[in-house]
Amino acid sequence: MAYSLITVEEAKSPISEAFRTLRTNVQFTGVDSENRRIMITSAGPREGKSSTLANLAVSIAQTGKSVLVIDADLRNPTQHKLFRLDNREGLSIALVLDQDYRSFISETEVQGLQVLTGGPVPPNPAELVGSKRMKRLMEEAGKQFDIVLIDTPPVVAVTDAAILAQEVDGVILVLAAGEVNKEFAQRAKEQLDKVNAKILGAVLNKVEIKASDYQYYYYYHSSEDTKKKHKRQKAL
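RESULT FIELD:
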């Protein structure tokens, strides 16, 4: 599987613009109460929650905020693949050894964006993410970064996401268009409601974009780039 960050590699694409819109919507949800720690999960597997989180993190960091990505999907850590980082150490090691999580943080190519990778897959992921050490880590990270984005396993499959949902300021649910059925999505919401999670909203992922939409977007930016080029030439 190829992993990529479209907000880095194709910053002017329609999909990157969609992530900027998501970023704006997330910011609006914090008007009345500050949402510093946001968990992103999905109803089931392969809905794109991890890539959604990573691209949202890039988009937020591009505004000048300090962002920490925590890969708390200790069953299937993915963030190190997206950001091309070493995963020999990470969250699981920090929790087991009860060490300062900042010692395990990795820098990325995006200024202001750091990642705490998942680390080696442990035999007891639910116990680790539900531990007092994890709670303390989340509290400290919320004070030290403008935004903390937490990647978790799918909410319906295992208990990890429901456990962590109680320690964050808000939850975003990622649903794959044409793949997840209505009953399964509803069950995911019910699981989060049971633990009184604050659901900020849902992201409909894997939506097919028509070729005409791409053409319009390309034409718009090409025209703007041409105008800028002419202005530069006139200035010379």
